[in-house]
Write a structure and sequence with these properties.
Chain lengths: 337, 445
């Protein structure tokens, strides 16, 4: 007895048992209701977009790890999240080659160029989407109505557009509630918005399911609830004040809350741990900034939707927020610089 | 008088407590090992100076080594026996230090030699402090800082509150819990000595809510003592740290780089207090201490009164361990030290021995980059930024860590590493960074 070798390590010898991989995997679980609903409402086309985006992200991550001679990091699930989020922000009939390109850009430019997981300044999925929006402004605003009868049997022609070709837009229906409001002054019923019975990006339509996934992550303590709450309250208050001033000109705050990519952005994109501030007070300021920017862009900007740019801008500010807002160190009057 | 606190210090963590397996086990006396191994450096500060010779016969309680200066304490013989050897002994750090090999007489009655008794009523503070030093007493919570030096109130300061630390926030350990339940008279007498030595106005015994039985028992036992109150705080690690306990009980913060006396408090561990109450009336020296032996690898878990110098191998033989043990820790699992050599022995600062099986300890498979989740920031009891400190440590920016991010305040409680989902060995980084900063400072002088 006791002649054996003992393991030694430095204290603490206990861990909470949570790993990056567990957190990321659970974010993927939390996104599942939203992803499944997008397939249910937009059919086989949305499924193809999502699968392509995830595949492209994973392949890019693996390939880049290979050529830089690092061990592959695809198993940490973070590339899956990037792919899923990217796919969910795209129109359900977005051409697959463009989707694939978006995944490549998201991982290569949004994440790998900065040094990989943990070093990205911006949410990688949004970097991918921003590039797609700049490159393919028509395709990315070509919407498709949900709940079409043939959605599980027909692959839309635009989705199979050959690489480097623009899709031919056939007469389509289904302007998003935000563009309908912005360009035609038509508002959509709030209940329809909350449940997702409208057209829009693949995964942005059902606010209820997004909140369900977010609630799961908050309960498991894998998400900072202060971020979505700060964003949503800011949007509600800011647009509420505008609506109160002139209900004829400005949309109702509930329309603002449940339309477009706000829910998906507030719950799943702004909460990217790497690109958001680290202290509780810091994330609240970050959330308020996003909320204000969303309303400003939507109402006074040239685009119908502003969530993506709002989050990207706030991402860029978050290191500065961290420098500005730190806890007061115990036993001192000063904050860490 | 029993008082319940609802608020505690900021942040902290809740590791699984795992105390129920031993907190009902009364303290049991351990037999003498055939050979006791006594390193002479068992306290923070100067090691003691050996005053016995090889081959000499000694009596239990006799001084084997005397204090070498003010920040030092004597070492007493834990048993009547013969000095076999004075040479190098292994220690937990891996280094060899000088020490004494003592062979107890197997048939001796092991009666303890007594010294000059200190009377609690008539002694003046200096006499009590000398008595504590002569008894060889150091902080038994694990730090092993000479207690008399801690009790010496600096010129121009005064002590208002004496805090008796019965928190025992380390998971698995139950020694303080048992001491509180079994040695109330020693604790009371110890507090009387300490109140006199520090001239404090009152004493608080701080206990966590997971030891409600001890709190109820002590507050009942002490109900006629107007100066002593028992106060219960919510369970949270690392509440047993002096600074955290002061904040929980007094709602004050010890200034960065300062000591409890800067907020007019002195904190003494409850087992140390009991030892003072037991030894000083007889002028004895410390020869044994209570240790929790527990963990998935131990067969006879419990709380044992073990002679100082008992080899770890002998201890584990006596309590029995599983075939599959893979790690042994001295102290608790949060701040304790992993043992690499079973030939080391029990010292005054050993509060627990935790033994785990192969299947118990989950090792991190890989270290991920920091994802800035903020878990460490919300765990650090000092509100440091371990995330930022960890990144700076990686870039070897040690001076910036100390100058801008309060590195030197870190007391290595391990809360940040415990919660980190990326399994970054933050405490390890900080320990290393601190020692480099200290060396650079020393070199600059």
């Amino acid at each position: 007895m006791l002649g054996k070798t003992l393991n030694i390590s430095t204290s603490p010898h206990l861990t909470k048992g949570i790993s990056v991989e567990v957190i990321m995997r659970n974010v993927v679980y939390a996104l599942m209701p939203t992803a499944l609903f997008s397939v249910y409402s937009f059919g086989i086309n949305a499924a193809l977009v999502l699968i392509t985006a995830v595949t492209s992200s994973l392949l890019t991550e693996h390939f880049l790890c290979r050529i830089t001679k690092k061990s592959s990091t695809v198993s940490d699930w973070s590339a899956v999240i990037t792919g899923l989020l990217l796919g969910l922000t795209l129109p359900p009939i977005f051409p697959l080659w463009m989707t694939f390109l978006g995944g490549m850009v998201a991982i290569a430019m949004g994440k790998f160029l900065f040094g990989g997981l943990g070093y990205n300044v911006f949410n990688p999925a949004l970097v991918g989407r921003a590039v797609l929006q700049a490159a393919f402004p028509v395709a990315i605003t070509t919407w498709y109505a949900g709940f079409m009868d043939d959605r599980f049997s027909t692959i839309h022609s635009s989705i199979l557009t050959l690489p480097f070709m623009e899709p031919i837009i056939d007469g389509f229906s289904g302007a998003t509630p935000l563009s309908a409001f912005k360009f035609d002054g038509v508002t959509t019923d709030t209940t329809d918005l909350a449940l997702g019975l409208t057209s829009g990006s693949a995964g942005e339509t059902s606010a209820v399911l997004i909140l369900l996934g977010g609630t799961y992550l908050v309960i498991r303590n894998f998400m900072n609830w202060r971020i979505p709450i700060a964003i949503l309250i800011t949007v509600l208050l800011f647009s509420g004040i505008l609506y109160w001033i002139d209900p004829g000109q400005y949309p109702s705050p509930f329309f603002m809350l449940f339309s477009g990519g706000l829910m998906l952005g507030a719950v799943f994109m702004a909460t990217d741990m790497v690109a958001s501030p680290i202290t509780s007070a810091g994330v609240i300021l970050y959330g308020v900034i996003i909320g204000v920017l969303v309303v400003v862009i939507r109402i006074w900007g040239g685009l119908p939707e502003g969530v993506m740019y709002a989050i990207l801008l706030a991402n860029a500010m978050s290191p500065h927020i961290d420098r500005l807002i730190q806890y007061r160190v115990y036993g001192t009057k000063t904050k860490t610089s | 008088m029993l008082k319940l606190h609802r608020h505690t210090f900021k942040h902290g963590v809740h590791p699984p407590e795992n105390k129920t397996e031993t907190n009902g086990q009364p303290i049991r006396q351990f037999p003498f090992a055939p050979l006791l191994i006594l390193p002479i450096a068992q306290n923070i500060g100067a090691p003691s100076k050996v005053i016995v010779k090889e081959g000499q016969e000694v009596v239990r309680g006799q001084q084997l080594a005397e204090a070498d200066g003010y920040l030092s304490v004597p070492l007493h013989s834990p048993a009547s026996g013969k000095i076999r050897k004075i040479s190098n002994v292994p220690t937990i750090s891996g280094k060899m230090t000088s020490g004494i090999y003592l062979e107890p007489f197997p048939s001796s009655t092991q009666e303890v030699q007594e010294g000059t008794p200190i009377d609690v009523e008539s002694a003046i503070p200096e006499e009590i402090l000398n008595g504590i030093q002569n008894a060889g007493i150091v902080g038994l919570g694990g730090a092993a800082f000479p207690t008399h030096a801690k009790l010496k109130i600096p010129e121009g300061k005064y002590c208002d509150v004496l805090i008796i630390n019965g928190i025992e926030c380390e998971p698995y350990l139950t020694t303080d819990h048992r001491v509180m339940l079994e040695q109330p008279e020693d604790i009371l007498l110890g507090i009387k000595y300490l109140l006199k030595a520090t001239k404090a106005n009152r004493a608080i015994i701080g206990i966590e809510a997971n030891k409600q039985d001890a709190a109820d028992f002590l507050s009942n036992y002490l109900k006629s003592e107007d100066l002593i109150s028992v106060e219960v705080v919510p369970v949270k690690y690392p509440q047993g740290a002096e600074k955290m306990l002061i904040t929980s009980l007094l709602n004050k913060e010890v200034p960065s780089g300062g000591l409890p006396i800067d907020v007019n408090a002195v904190v003494v561990n409850v087992a140390t207090t009991a030892e003072i109450g037991r030894l000083l009336p007889h002028g004895r020296g410390i020869q044994e201490r209570v240790i929790t032996i527990t963990g998935s690898g131990v067969k006879k878990k419990g709380n044992y009164l073990i002679p100082i110098g008992t080899p770890l191998r002998y201890v584990l033989d006596q309590v029995g361990v599983e075939e599959s043990i893979s790690e042994v820790y001295m102290g608790g699992p949060m701040m304790g030290v992993a043992v690499s050599n079973l030939d080391i022995s029990i010292v005054k600062g050993t509060s627990g021995i935790v033994v785990f099986n192969n299947n118990h300890v989950k090792r991190a498979e890989r270290i991920y980059p920091c994802i800035k989740c903020g878990a460490c920031v919300d765990a650090c009891p000092l509100s440091l930024n371990p995330s930022k400190l960890g990144i700076l440590a990686k870039f070897e920016e040690y001076d910036q860590m100390a100058a801008d991010y309060h590195l030197m305040d870190c007391f290595e409680c391990g809360s940040c590493s415990y919660v980190c989902p990326s399994h970054i060995p933050l405490v390890q980084y900080f320990r290393l960074s601190k020692s480099i900063v200290r060396k650079r400072k020393a070199a600059a002088c």
